[in-house]
Specification:
Blueprint (H helix, E strand, L loop, with lengths): L1 H7 L7 H9 L2 E8 L2 E9 L1 H18 L14 H5 L4 H4 L1
Length: 92
């Protein structure tokens, strides 16, 4: 979905071959979106590992200090599922 939306906006940073190969090998891209620009920042094997790494990086950024005391987490599922993801409790 993210790749399709980025391509609609003209972003070509994640190619079809890369996306298909990543899906086949269970490699999840971690994407960074800022001011209309989207790009991959990491490729991690397995959903749980990717989520845990993402929450760890967010936690590091929070401890380093934020310009505003706000973190926005977007998740396409039930909130109880989000709260049970690996690394969420530590990040919170």
């Amino acid at each position: 979905y993210m790749r399709a939306r980025a391509r609609h906006k003209g972003d070509r940073s994640v190619g079809l071959l890369s996306a298909e190969l990543g899906s086949a090998l269970d490699i999840k891209p971690v994407l960074h979106g800022y001011r209309g620009e989207t790009g991959p920042v990491a490729k991690i094997k397995g959903f749980d590992s990717a989520v845990q790494k993402l929450f760890a990086v967010v936690g590091q950024r929070v401890r380093a200090g934020l310009m505003t005391p706000t973190v926005c987490v977007s998740y396409g599922g039930e909130l109880d599922e989000l709260r049970s993801l690996p690394g969420y409790a530590q990040m919170k």
